[in-house]
Prior knowledge:
Elements: E1 4-17, E2 20-33, E3 37-41, H1 48-55, E4 63-68, E5 71-74, H2 81-94, E6 96-99, H3 111-121, H4 129-135, H5 151-164, E7 169-173, H6 181-198, E8 201-205, H7 209-213, E9 217-220
Helix pairs in contact: 3-5, 5-6
Amino acid sequence: MKDALLGVHGLSKNFYSGAEQIPVLSDISLALARGESLALMGRSGSGKSTLLNLLCGLEQPDAGMISILGNTFDSRQAMDGRSRERRWSDLRRQQIGVVFQEANLMPAMSLLDNVRLRAKLAGQDESGCTSWLDRLGIGSLAGRYPDQVSGGQRQRAALAMVFAMKPALILADEPTGSLDRLTADEVAKELFRLQSDSGCALILATHDGELAARCGQRLDLAHRVSV
């Protein structure tokens, strides 16, 4: 694939309740290039969040292979745990931006300082951080702390953090799920606009069919889980 960024082959993940094995994901395969977008659909418990966690190294698969940005993680090949985590940590810091349902901001830092910190960790210029807040309509709130702004404004700040790091891939886990409809529509509009402008890839986990329809590809996990 031209400009291939992510390839997933035969990915499976199980959880355990005592001695009982509970399949969460079974034999998932997908491919994504730079500039493309993919919606992950499925009911609660179908594995959307788990798949995103696997794709950024926060969880490890029981089977399958992930090739991402020139790195290959194959469950069949032994890898030192520290080496694996170091590689994933580098990717999350510099190349993979993660947007959670609840904005993950440092409470003791202003919105602007949260964005600056994220850019600094990614090795990016901090001078443009104010402009990201401006583009998202919250530039006037740059000096406020997370508990001094609304949920929608915190979510916009979280998007500013991600875009300030200039990632190759964004993983968004129900980023509008806790917002009212109007705010959710505005946040989603900015997410897709900025994704298009930057040319990064996007994987979006959502229950919202209208939001999913804006993505170029769709994967329905409800039909890919063995239970």
